[in-house]
Structure formats: structure tokens, C-alpha cells
Amino acid sequence: AALGAPVTGEDGYVGGRSIIVGHVNFGGWQDTAGIKSAMGGVDEATVGDTVLVGAADGSTVTYRVTRKDHVLWEGLDEYLHTQYKPGTLAHADVVLVTCFFDHTDAYGNPVYDKNVVVTLEAV
Predict the structure, then answer these.
(1) Radius of gyration, CA atoms only, the chain
(2) In what order do the strands lie in the sheet with 114-122?
(3) Which comes out higher in pLDDT, residue 41 or 46?
(4) pLDDT category, 115, cuts 50, 70, 90?
(5) N- to C-terminal Cα distance for the chain?
(6) Interior CA angle at 98 toward 92 and 103, to 5°?
(7) Fewer CB atoms inside 10 A, N or C side of the chain?
(8) 36 pLDDT more than 90
(9) Over pLDDT 90: what percentage of the chain?
């Protein structure tokens, strides 16, 4: 389902998640204009935060951050398959996935060996 769209069963979609994946900008996590990229603030999310999403019909859908995890790259596929099972939902939950680093290599470069995974559930 489209972000903020109700799950109607049209086109065979009856449950599951909308997954949005994007790269966090290198270094300061900001673009060249000094404004955070679309995924630049994902790691700042905390459980309980509220997110408003405009729906196609002009209404607003309210989501709440219900989960935030740091997952190693090689375990991301298994994590997504075990944590997110399809279900009957009024609105598809949204899963945001972006890269994350918490250490650098011997030359001071960030080592992106993890992902931040944030789950938003419609309230």
C-alpha cells in the first residue's frame, strides 16, 4: 500500500508493511545545503514519537514509533522476515531502514556495518 493509504485488499494487498530504504548522507548526515536528507534523522527517532503522514485523499494518518533497532547488515534479511509478519491492518505499518555506524576504521572513516530499523504503526 502507498504510504498513508488504507489497506483495502485491492490488487491483492491485504497486510504486511511498507518498507522505505535510503542511504544516510556520508559524514555529517546532511546534504550540501546543510539540511538533513530524508533519512538523515531516522536514528534520532525514539519509541513513542508521533509522525504525521499525508494520505492520497487529503487526510492525515498518525503513526507512532513502536520499535527501533540497530541490525548488522548480514542479519537484516533474517531480522525483517522474523520481526515483520503480514497481518490485517487498517493502514500498513511503515518500516524505515537506513545505514548506521558506531565506529571508524584505522583511517578514521565510518564503518557502515549496521542498519537502523524504525517501525511506525498507525494509531
Answers:
(1) 16
(2) 17-22, 93-100, 114-122, 60-72, 50-54
(3) 46
(4) very high
(5) 17
(6) 150
(7) C
(8) no
(9) 19
Cα 54 from Cα 40, distance rounded (Å): 20
CA distance 19 to 97: 7
- Asked if 5 and 16 count as a contact pair (C-beta separation under 8 A), the reply is no
Please report, as a single letter, which amino acid is at residue 10. E
CB within 8 Å of 111: residues ≥ 6 apart = 101, 103, 104, 105
